[in-house]
Amino acid sequence: MTIAQVGPAEFVRPAKHSNVGEVKAYMKITRITAQQGFTLLQTVIVVAIISIVTTFGVLGIKRARAEYLHQSAARLFASYVEKARADAIRRHAGSGQESAIETFGPESTAYAVTMDWGNGVVETRTFDLDAGLTFDVAAKKVMFDWRGRIDEAWVWQIKSTYLDKRVPVDVSGSGDITVGEQHFPDQMIPFTPITQVTGDVASPDPSPSPSASTSPINPIDQPPADPTPTPIGDLPPVASSPTPTPSPTATPNGNGNGNGNGNGHGNNASPTPTPSPTPTPTSPCVSFLTPNTLSLSQSLPGHQTGTVTFTMTNATGVRFINAAQAGNGNAMSIEVSLLRIDGSGSSAISVTTKNGGGNRGVFIVNVSADPSCGETQKLTVSISN
User: Fold this and answer.
1) Over the stretch 135-144, which tens digit does the pLDDT of each residue have?
2) What is the C-alpha separation between 18 and 180, in angstroms, rounded?
């Protein structure tokens, strides 16, 4: 059997006695069968897998970088708060010279630090958060006294737009600062009244002098006054004054001349003008909240949900009610009982807390009507542990 009669699968290696032509043909067929490649479908699948893996890798790196910047910005802000507190203690700051930290409301990116920066003068410097980061709480100025204390505990929330996440920076009433968690929940500590001491030595109160309280008593020899007077003797009746009878006044008819014959032209009466009606102005639509503040807790039963009433007066037509957290935040659940009101009326706004360190602080909820009814009402919601 010759090589021409055998297919590639049936071809066997030629024997030693084969001629040179058969050996060359064998080697050529072997090279052809050994060359194997990839199909177009296989290539497309491999490229798709590489693209997916690369995309997830890039997204993971981008998210990790955003997380790092978010945490770094929160800790940098907390370090400035700690510096301001330490400066107030070091200077023994008096009234009007306190160190302070001030932020400017939801979606703001700047914060102001007031302290002595090493030149012996208290001055204010302004700093900005990194790109994509904003404050998500109400505007507040926190001042540290000479003991490093503040008037009330406060929570700043630094929000990452890319991560849709918040990092809390807590300051307790005693001035303790934490990032990410709250380890000093002042709201959970019951209030303890403190006795005010005005002097170094408490001096006893003087013994009270007894004072007799006397009630007025009528003298024995003076009879009590009789409130009803008794008439003495027969008095003549009082004559009533006669009621005067009004004299008729002649009404001129416009034809008299003073001689009584009714033909004169000396008395021409002028007609009384009819008053023109004055249009009454329509009162504008006015809206208000009752109450306009809420204090809620994430853990205390009965304090996790609060309700306020949004009322419109002098309203006409149909209006739609909207309530949303300022800065497009979602630190709480907000529900509106009536989304549509025809004319004047009221709608209940219910606010419920969410668990998590990023949902504590003082937030602003904007409540408005469409079409507008007066100014947008602002509800201040304070959420603690």
Assistant:
1) 999 999 999 9
2) 85
Quote the CA–CA distance of 15 and 249 in Å, as a whole number: 161
In the sheet that 122-128 helps form, which strands lie side by side, from edge to edge?
122-128, 110-116, 99-103, 140-144
Q: What is the dihedral angle through the alpha carbons of 351, 353, 354, 357, rounded to the nearest 10 degrees? A: 130
- Edge to edge, the sheet with strand 165-171 lists 133-135, 154-160, 165-171, 177-179
Cis peptide before 237 (omega within 30 of 0): no
Q: Spell out the domain ranges in the chain.
A: 47-186, 286-384
Which fold is adopted by the domain 47-186?
Answer: minor pseudopilin epsh fold (3.55.40)
CATH T-level assignment (fold) for domain 286-384: Immunoglobulin-like (2.60.40)
| Cβ-contact 382, 298 below 8 angstroms | no
First to last CA, the chain: 94
Phi-psi map region of 220: left, alpha, beta (phi>0 left; psi -120 to 50 alpha): alpha
| pTM exceeds cut of 0.70 | no
Decide if 312 contacts 346 (C-beta within 8 A): yes
Bridge partners (DSSP) listed for residue 297: 384
- Type of residue at 185: P
